Amino acid sequence: MTKKIALLGSTGSIGTQTLEVVANDPSLEVVGLTVHHNIDLLEEQIKMFHPRLVCVMDEKKALELQERVRAQGIKVEVLAGMEGLIAVATMEEADTVLTAVVGMIGLLPTIEAIKKGKVIALANKETLVTAGELVMGAAKAHQVSILPVDSEHSAIFQCLRGNEHQSISKLILTASGGPFRDYTKEMLQDVTVEAALKHPNWSMGSKITIDSASLMNKGLEVIEAKHLFDVTPEQIDVIVHRESIIHSMVEYKDGSTMAQLGLPNMMHPIAYALYYPERKPTSCVHPLDFTKVSKLTFDPPKKDLFPCLQLAYDALMVGGTMPAVLNAANEVAVDAFLKKQITFLQISQIIHEVMARHICINRPSLDEIIGIDEWARVMSRQEVQKQ
């Protein structure tokens, strides 16, 4: 039986790897694709995968793509903007919606897909960070499965299979530590954008690579883990594992620990989510050769040097709209750093300032979360201008 997939964010790192998995298996079919603006690559994907519906967030680029496919006689419907993104996420023929867009933009289409009963393969961190309670509540109400695509959450998901929830002692998220894991605070003062984008283990998009360098990526994953696995913040630990072979672990109350191991690439968690509950072989995923693993090292994270991790824990403990503020401030600050408007260390300073100015709303509605997200972005841009 063919599994039909709507892929949100098809030209990014996760999106392109997802299509590589699909290309190697005729039992997987792409019915919808979305991109932000990269219509050159999207055009190639349309020719290869023949989706019925695509969306380009940039309306001018969408019109340009429409002209291109019409001139070539390619049968595909091209939509634009948030309405188009939601239309792809809610396609009647789609079984699974894999959300690989970056940022808050993934929230609304994911919620609408849940309402339509779609299985959600979730690679968009911001969906659960900003509105975890609402999203998980909607999934429960509509009896929808949310399958994590992040390597860390996929690892925990796999380690939990067949075990009772009440047996969990703690979840242990592993972190590579990023390119600056051996730096001092003095060294961090002068790091460049180019250096921050050179991740030692993973090949990712620019935003998530900067988040990895600041450990905010791990902080966002802590918040996600709380919602995905229904545990308390105190039950989530982070440990630096330089080799990125162990993708995360679950410690149980009887003292045993289960870990999921693999090479540092995203093909396995993507394939695991697409094939779940089966485990199917794919030519894209290669098993780990233990004779080539010389050592596995573990260290505590340096929260004093990388305060973004603690800020994420703080936001999670406060709850309500505070994680949405954390996320929005981080998105603005990271963008400013990539544009060389602020320094690396100022990323966490801006987030801290905006969080300190926020009066938290407990149990917010979706509209309140969206409103607070906009407020936090305005405040963050003001902080950037002060630097």
Tag the structure with descriptive keywords.
Rossmann fold, NADP, 387 residues, alpha/beta, 4-stranded mixed beta sheet, 16 helices
Question: What's the short version?
Answer:
With about 375 residues, the protein is an alpha/beta fold. It has 16 helices and 11 strands. Strands 4-3-2-1-5-6-7 form a 7-stranded parallel beta sheet, with helices on both faces. Strands 9-8-10-11 form a 4-stranded mixed beta sheet, with helices on one face.
Description of the structure:
By secondary structure, the protein is an alpha/beta fold. Helix content is 48%, strand content 15%. It has two domains: 3-148, 3-Layer(aba) Sandwich (Rossmann fold); 150-182 and 211-303, no CATH class. The chain contains 16 helices and eleven strands. The strands form two sheets. A seven-stranded parallel beta sheet has the order 4-3-2-1-5-6-7, with helices on both faces. Strands 9-8-10-11 form a four-stranded mixed beta sheet, with helices on one face. Strand 2 (28-35), helix 2 (39-49) and strand 3 form a beta-alpha-beta unit. Helix 4 (81-89) runs parallel beside helix 5 (107-115), helix 11 (216-229) runs parallel beside helix 13 and helix 13 runs antiparallel to helix 14 (322-338). The termini are far apart.
What's the CATH architecture of the largest domain?
3-Layer(aba) Sandwich
What low-confidence regions span 5 or more consecutive residues with pLDDT below 50? none
Mean pLDDT: 95
CATH topology of the largest domain: Rossmann fold
Strand content: 5-15%
CATH C-level class of the largest domain is: Alpha Beta
Coarse morphology: globular
